[in-house]
Amino acid sequence: MKKVVAAFNMTLDGVCDHTTGIADEDLHNHYAELIDRAGVILYGRKTFELMQFWQEILENPSGEKSMDDFAVAIDKIHKLVFSTTLKHTAWNSAELAKWSLEEEILALKQQADKDILIGSRSLIIQLLNANLIDELQICIHPIIEGKGMMLFDHIKHQVLLKLIKTKSLSSGATVFYYEPTTA
């Protein structure tokens, strides 16, 4: 069985708005490598729709190698989208989930030969509340935003974490790798 890995960006004060953060070469390369090692990434509708930006980069490359490489990586990985309003994904490597989040995760864990990535705030919160995340990779950007959507504002119970490693990026952002523990 492979791990369920939640990977997300946030500012130092916990804001996870996609318009904050430092989207530089190092960050794109970091996430392209993470995606290349995984078998599937799960998205909610809003994040999935934001990620469709990368389809445009595939069709019209930016000329920036790290962005173009990330577009290729995100296009290749299988995407499972949780939505009650979308009727189709308009992306060959994406499909709509047929079961509940927990049912899909349990099924994927049984059949996965690579890690399962979680790339949406709403899904991370649901899976943390259900104790179904094996690893959190939180990239903290050296920014205090002061306002915006908080990553962990709907957690129902305390989650204890064990730091397993860190990775510093050239922008000053740091990726913290955590495993949930049981006290």
Architecture overview:
This protein has a single domain, classed as 3-Layer(aba) Sandwich (Dihydrofolate Reductase, subunit A), CATH 3.40.430. Helix content is 32%, strand content 28%. It has 6 helices and 8 strands; from the N terminus they run E-H-E-H-H-H-E-E-H-E-H-E-E-E. The chain has helices at 25-36, 45-51, 53-59, 65-76, 101-111, 121-129, and strands spanning 4-11, 38-44, 78-82, 94-96, 115-118, 135-141, 160-168, 174-181. Strands 4-3-2-5-1-6-8-7 form an 8-stranded mixed sheet, with helices on both faces. A hairpin with a 5-residue loop joins strand 7 and strand 8. Helix 1 (25-36) runs parallel beside helix 4 (65-76) and helix 3 packs across helix 4. The longest helix is centred in the first third of the chain and has 12 residues, at 25-36. It is globular and about 45 Å long. The chain starts with a strand and ends with a strand. The model has no long low-confidence stretch (mean pLDDT 95).
How is the CATH topology named? Dihydrofolate Reductase, subunit A
DSSP E strands, number:
8
Strand content: 25-35%
The CATH level-2 architecture is identified as 3-Layer(aba) Sandwich
Structural class: alpha/beta
Q: Sketch the major β-sheet.
A: 8 strands, mixed
Q: What is the distance, rounded to the nearest whole angstrom, between the alpha carbons of the first and last residues?
A: 24 Å
Q: CATH top level?
A: Alpha Beta
CATH evolutionary superfamily: Dihydrofolate Reductase, subunit A
Q: How is the largest sheet built, in terms of strand order?
A: 4-3-2-5-1-6-8-7
Helical residues, percent:
25-40%
Using the CA coordinates, give the radius of gyration.
16 Å
Number of spatially distinct domains: 1
Low confidence ranges: none
The secondary-structure element order is EHEHHHEEHEHEEE
The 3D shape can be described as: globular
Number of helices: 6
Mean pLDDT: 95
